[in-house]
Structures are given as structure tokens and as C-alpha cells.
Amino acid sequence: MNLSEILGDLNDKQSQSVILDNNKNALILAGAGSGKTRVLTHRIAYLVTQNSVNTDSILAVTFTNKAALEMRERLSLLLRRPIRSMWVGTFHGISHRMLRTHHIEANLSSQFQILDAQDQFRIIKRLMKENQIDETKYPVKKIQWFINQQKDEGVRPKDIDAGYNYFVKQSVKVFELYEGHCASNDLIDFAELLLRSYDLLKLNSDLLSHYQERFQHILVDEFQDTNTIQYKWIKLLSSKQNRVFCVGDDDQSIYGWRGAKIDNIHKLEKDFTPIQTIRLEQNYRSTGNILSASNALITNNKSRLGKSLWTDSGDGEKIDVYEARTEIDESDYVVSSIQTLLNDNIMARNCAILYRSNAQSRAFEERLIKYNIPYIIYGGLRFFERAEIKDAMCYLRLIENSSDNVAFERIVNFPTRGIGNATIEKIREFAANNGTNLFQSSVSIISSLPTRAANSLDGFVKLIENMRDASQNLNLSEKVALLIKDSGLIYHFSNDKTDKAGSKKENLEELIATAKRYIHDEESDLSETLGFISQATLDSSGGDDNTNTNKCVQLMTIHSAKGLEFPYVFLAGMEEDLFPSRQSKDEPRLIDEERRLCYVGMTRAMKKLTLSYAIKRFLHGQSIYAYPSRFIDEIPQHYKNSIKQKFGLSENDYKSNNSKNQNIFPESDSQLSVGANVKHAKFGYGTVLNFEGKGDSTRVQIKFKKAGTKWLISSYANLEFV
DNA sequence: ACAATAGGGATTTTT
DNA sequence: TCCCTATTGT
């Protein structure tokens, strides 16, 4: 690969960044849609092919697994070879890798487990209960938040002076208890991965210099999102001999509330000298109007590094601003606009509805169902966070490592097998007194238990032991298949009446497939199973079935849309107190972040952007009158096209429409049952998987033979039973 | 052990 | 309003 191939399709600024002097650090201020991933990957390709930098000497850090994966893929395409051994990963993934390799120096066993947010919550809650700390006064969520916040700042309990603040005092107490618990149980939470790997390097100068010498080039993506400990981690790894190359955009910093320090990007220029700053301002995504409007909006923020996006692709259409009467009206406007696009053969996946808070998705969902437009809502529980999947994973964990107390607690009596609280309390007590784990403790106390409890507990112990023996010679996916069956999970969820659609059972089956797909890193210090378990915690998004999503309109929060782009974007709920949110309105710092969020939302749009707001909105059980968002006013009028006229059906039309439809699907319809076969005019034949609600608002989930699985409102769907 | 019921809270969530 | 949790009753 030669230089012109690497620089071939890059603009001046991009090329400059890629071939930047090796003796300088770099800050690439990459605006939205300016090709930052391209610069990052081409920079690496340049170093490897033109500067003979060994791939082992490169460390590339991202925030999300998705970004890391994308970088890997693009790199192996560019370099035309696999880059398996290269250190490309998330902050957490890289930290994890270091801790596994140097677990002894990090004061961890080789089998340490990673806690996800749920596990962490459970532990904190139990610790508080055991120590009589009143949950109503000190909500677990808040304490958990406090602890994570401190860790993100690199702060340990001993560093905190609570003064006279009772909340902080209690939080620190729980923090200490929690730290003790994690230490004695070999547990690491997300924040701890970073903090501990930081300490590891800080306290072991040999290790530190090893990595400093090894990583000649450290590249960081989305630098504006780094928190204090991440910044310190990078700073620690940097040295006289190596160079950092940071890419970021201060205008797209939207995770300040999670500890991201926008100021890190400012500090960079002081802490990492000599440094060269390059601005990528040419945008390849949006039309001129969208960019100018976004630029105008973001100018209202103070203390920016300053950047102004431009494009040579023409002005495009103005931004539509729709004033709706209510959120129903709003969703009707948006969805009928989408319908119009679909009629023009625009693909559904090219349309996105973005909003500030998840609660806003409902109105759109209902309208999309009415129009029979396929959609997908992002957000909510991810695959590995689902209860049934966590249950199964905990069986896997306990089979693999009987000292995993977190797993033990979760599944000892699930599915229920007659092991009550009293028994579990005895197990805990014995374990605490004898310095052993819960599983071992169970084995020890069985003989001292009343017959009934003893039998139940004995059954559980034997179950785990048998599964362990039986899975000895099985591969990962066979192991998973065995466990979801023998544990009784499949049986339990097959009979779960609350899960009419059987999706939990399906998820468990999907877990087998996910295990099958798992590719184990041969160089890893972990067994295949432990590798799978760690990966599941570090990347909880697995298992999702993306086959139909490209036919769907996409609904998500603006936060989730960061890094994505769509030809047609609808930014909904542009109202004061919703966006910017009420909780942010009193603090200029928070308002600025809301404004950046709005900027991120607007710059997702490629061809056409539509903003909408409702005068009256039903929220939290009551109607609220709202003012249009200040952000709308901050966009100069000549980029906007205001639409105030009522679109589509009038209120009366709705009424007549509804009453007309009421007869189509009588309330007392006894034919509607799971498994019933139906025919739909457009989607053809299908089977009812699930339904909810009554009368007019009944929603039915149907698996169509050809059209896939859909939720429909029965009063609109006009179903025929066959 | 589970279902029914009452009460409280309701941005955003990369790992 | 809706959803999640904790409590209560069978």
C-alpha cells in the first residue's frame, strides 16, 4: 500500500492529520460528519505502512464496542490483513485485558468477575440492608450513582471528606462496605476496571514503562467523552517516547452528566505538548441549510474551541418546523410525512424519529402501528441484560466457578426449588464465619438443616455438580444448551404466563446461538467459557437479530443517535421543559449540554430535517401546556419553514374514525387468543403471538408467514379469523 | 410461592 | 399515565 492510496480520497485537512509529524501529539477537532473514523483508521494505516510502525505498538481506544469493531473492520480492509493481535478496544475492554494479564499485580485472582450495573445494585442494596441503612432515606440508586461518580473521578473512600453532609457520610460508609465486599469476592465493576488498571500501572513502574515503550502511538476516539480517570489513564501511559492522537468534538459532548469532562479536550493542549491541533470542518453528511442552522444554534454556547462546519453540496431544503396541537397531532404529522416518503420509494430505515426522552416514543409507536409502517425502537434492556439471559449466564458462571457468589445468590432459588430466605441467610452466615464461598458453605451446612430445606439445598448442590460433570467435555454452546435445559429455566419460561409471546424462551434459545457465534481469542488468559462470560458483561448488546431492522423506521433518543446518520430526521418534542429538559433549565452549564444534544440531533440529518413541538402534551398523567424550545428560536428564520396549519385529520375526523372502527373489532371478541390464525389484508396469514389491552386499544402481536412479526392495533388492523 | 395491590417516581445510559 | 418495587394476603 502506497501513500497515495492512503491519502487518495481524503481532503487537505484529513491528509494533514493522517501524515502528521511523528514527534508531535495531535488533537483533531472533528466536526459532525467530517470523517473522523476515516482519519483515525487512515492514520493507523499510514503509521503501519509508511512509517514501519509495528501493529503491536499501536493502542487505539474507543468508548463503544461498536466503534471498536468498526475500526477493526476498516483497518483490516485498509491493511488487507487480519489485525487480530492489535490493541483496538474500548477503555473498559483494554483495561480488562491488562487486569487479566497482570491479575496478580492487580491483587486479583485469575477468575475475577465483572459486575454489571444490575449486579452492583443488588450488592449495594444487600449491604445496606445488612447494615441497617434506611433505603427510603438513602435510595440505593443514588448511593450507587455516588460510588460510581467517585470512581470515575479516581476517588476512593479514604479520599473523601464528608464533612457534615449526612448523605455523603452514609454514602462513603456504603462505599467502604462495598469496596470490602468486592475485594473479598474478587469483583470488579465497570468503573473499577479503569481505576484498577490505572493503579496497576501507577504502582508498578516496570509494567508502566513496558507499556509506555510498547505503545508508540496511542489513538483516542471521542475524546470529549473521556472522564477524569480515563484522562489520567491516557496521561499515565503517555511518555517522552510515545505520541497521542486524539480525535473529538467539544460540540458533541453530551455525557457530562455521566462524568465526561469536556474540559479534558482543553487540557489536552496544555498537558500534551508539543501538540498540533487540526480542525476538520468540511462536512460530508448534511445539506447547507442543516449545517448553517446547526452552526447558528451551537454558537450560543460559551467556551467552545470554535469550529464551523461547511459543505459544498448545496443548501438543500429548509428545515420544517411543525407546530402541533398535541403529541398525538405531532406523531400524526411525523408519521404521515414518513408515509409520504415511503410512497416515494424512500426506504423506511432512512427515516429516524429522535427525541429527548424514551417516554416520547409511545405516541409515535401507536401511529406507526396504525399506518402499518414497520419500525424499531432502540433503547431499553439489551440482550445480556435481560433477566432470563442473566439467569442462564449465572448458571454458566456457577458451573465454571463455584466461588461466584453473585451468580449463586441469583439462581440458588430460581427457578424456585424451596430454598427460602432463612436457609440462604444460614448459608451466608456460615460463609462469612468460615471465610468460604456460598456454594462451599451450602455443602457444609446441609446436614445441619431441617430435612425439607436440606433436601432442597442438596438438590441444588447436586444439580450444579452434575451439570459441571456433564459439561466437562462439551463445547461452549453445548454447555449453554445443557444448562438452560437441566436448570429448569426452559421449563420455567415455557410455562410463564406473563410471557405470552414466548420471547423469553426464544431469548434463551438465542443465547445458544450467541454462544455458538462467540469467537474465542486464543491468546486470551481465560478459558473459552470465562471469556464468553466476560465479553457478555463488557458488551451486553449481543444476540440481537438485525435481519429486519433495515426495513424499519428507527426510533431512538438523541443520545443513542450519536455517531449515526439518516437521510430524513424528525426531531420531536422541541419544547421548553422537555428539550431542554426541566432539570437542566436552571444551570447554564446544563443548558449548554442540552444545546449540544440538540446540535448532535440536528447534525444526524443528511437530506431533510424536521423539528416539531406540541402546544399541549400529555405527560405523567396530565396535560401540560408548553412553549416552543428556545433552540428553535436560536435557529435563524431563513433556515426554517414554519408549518402551523393542522395536518391531516381534524379532531372530529378522529372521533368519527374511531367510532366507525369500533365495530370492526368487538370488545368481547373471544376469538382473539394466542395461537389463533388470522388474515390481514396486507400482510396475509399469520398467528397471534400475544395481545394486550381491551376493546379499541387492544394491541395484537402477530407472526405473519411472510411479513414477519408485528404489533398491530386490532381496531385498525381489520383482522379476519381463519 | 405467587398473585393482587398499593405507592412512588418518571431525562439522557457508550461500559 | 405507566412502570417498577415493596408489601400483603392466600
Which key features would you list for this structure?
45% helix; 8-stranded mixed sheet; 722 residues; globular
What would you say this structure looks like, in words?
The chain has 722 residues and is of the alpha/beta class. Helix content is 45%, strand content 16%. The chain has 29 helices and 21 strands. Strands 9, 10, 11, 12, 13, 14, 15 and 16 form an eight-stranded mixed β-sheet that branches. Strands 3-2-6-7-1-8 form a six-stranded parallel β-sheet, sandwiched between helices. A hairpin with a 6-residue loop joins strand 18 (684-692) and strand 19. Helix 16 (387-400) crosses helix 17 (405-411) and helix 16 crosses helix 21 (476-486). It is globular, with a radius of gyration of 28 Å. The chain starts with a helix and ends with a strand. The structure holds a DNA duplex (15 and 10 nucleotides).
Structure summarized in a few sentences:
This protein is of the alpha/beta class and 722 residues long.
